[in-house]
Amino acid sequence: MKKAVFVFLLALLLVPGEWMFARAPYVRPNYVRLGEWARANVFLVRWLERDRTLELTRGDTRLTFNVDSRSDARKAQINGVQVWLAFPVLDQNGNVFISQTDLAETIAPVLAPRANPAGIKVRTICIDPGHGGNDPGYQVGSNDEKKYTLLLAEEVRAELKAAGFNVVLTRTTDVKIPLEDRPAFARKKGADLFISLHFNASETARNEVNGTETFCCTPAGATSTNARGEGDTRWVVGNRYDERNMLLAYELQKSYANNLGVEDRGVKRARFQVLRESTVPSILIEGGFLSHPTEGKKITDPAYRKQMAHAIVQGVLAYKKAVRG
Length: 325
What we know:
With about 325 residues, the protein is an alpha+beta fold. It is built from nine helices and 17 strands.
């Protein structure tokens, strides 16, 4: 009888697309042994670099964790896409631990996304061109961030409409929209997703810093990726959609990296106002560095913006397929 139960449970774990993610026993508050979780979910475990990089594989699925305490132990990869964990992995005498929050809200949403309830479709997308009016965003020479977020939003709108979506923009001209009004606009319009568009800039190492990063709302109890240990950790409205936020951010970051070949700076966490006050799955994309001599020129190029828009739409379509919406 015990053998039959074991075989049944193992069969459930092996059903493609319906992973159950068995949990390993808790070792300390919010942390579990990564090796035990891996074995419970039929992953193979091996060190790529002893005490530095740990890899879990199952079929075509590959999870990579940075265990080296000399660098940021929140850095991980899911199928080759850079993802920053909510909490660092811990290495204690060769035993690696991962937070239950990350198993539930970082890894599971990507590897085993829940289907939307019957009848719930992804139809209306709210695109939020960052900045505007007397808020130019980053200024690099004569190039204002606000100009290129709007131009990109217009390209995204056109391609999303061609793909059959209804699209609304938080702004269509060079006006300043208060941050709190942006997610409120998405809610008023009945949007199913909220995507805020931005570009980055670096004050130093301008020739070196480039790439794309995508932010989703920081889970309750965790500090944001760039908070360096400080910052607010309370629950916010945007946390209602932690799983969906993560999946949407992952699909967009993956699409950007695969379609544009840009430096993958990863899926990151932040409590930006437009994310923490959103009532639908939401992300904020930093689509490249205006300050980088090569990437900055690409951002100002209409042909490249079409490629960026295509990457965003492909990410949305991948998300829609994953949630069967």
